[in-house]
Amino acid sequence: GAVVSQHPSRVICKSGTSVKIECRSLDFQATTMFWYRQFPKQSLMLMATSNEGSKATYEQGVEKDKFLINHASLTLSTLTVTSAHPEDSSFYICSPKRTDTQYFGPGTRLTVL
Amino acid sequence: GIQVEQSPPDLILQEGANSTLRCNFSDSVNNLQWFHQNPWGQLINLFYIPSGTKQNGRLSATTVATERYSLLYISSSQTTDSGVYFCAVDESNMLTFGGGTRLMVKP
What we know:
The structure holds 2 protein chains of 2 kinds. Chain A is mostly beta strands. Chain A has strands at 4-7, 10-13, 19-25, 32-38, 44-51, 57-58, 67-73, 76-81, 90-98, 101-102, 108-112. Chain A contains no helices and 11 strands. The radius of gyration of chain A is 13 Å and the shape is globular. The mean pLDDT of chain A is 93. The model of chain B has no long low-confidence stretch (mean pLDDT 95). In chain B, a hairpin with a 4-residue loop joins strand 9 (83-90) and strand 10 (95-97). Chain B contains no helices and 11 strands. In chain B, the strands form 2 sheets. In chain B, strands 2, 4, 5, 9, 10 and 11 form a 6-stranded mixed beta sheet that branches. A 5-stranded antiparallel beta sheet of chain B has the order 1-3-8-7-6, with no helix packed on it. The A-B interface holds A 32, 34, 38, 41-46, 49, 91, 93, 95, 100, 102, 104, 106-107, 109 and B 31, 35, 40-43, 86, 93-100, 102.
């Protein structure tokens, strides 16, 4: 159990375009979703926390208008990187939570040219 | 917020060697987890260990909550153990990650 998928696994885009990343919990319902960002050779940094049906809470330094999070259902959350720039290139990992346990998606590697 | 520090940051082992990875944290926590991040980026949970000792094959972990540290032991290391090891603490219903230990096991 506790299977988490992310799509796409890898994306390359031009500067100025928007990219949507989907995260699905395939066999459980997640009331809370965490989104992390990981730069090369660094740790996971929490970007935002969202609960189903409510607005996301963003960590300090993360622009809410740039990183749009939608958690419309208990099995699907999306992260949209708007007007992406090269400095947004990173590895994005979703983490749905069920009761007391956080699970992790396989990640999406974003490269902005 | 809580601070989580891991040591060493980098470690190179010869296959078959043993190693100990350390995780220090600055405040009381509800839970502590150890993860292995494989070369493709997937995080694999190794242990939930808020206190005490657990073992799983060649891996074991010990958390001394009163002294705010946890240790991950890897015995008879194999090349497939290579990757990054993270500890993460649950302070307020979300995980905060340490900086990681990057392990390379050479054949």
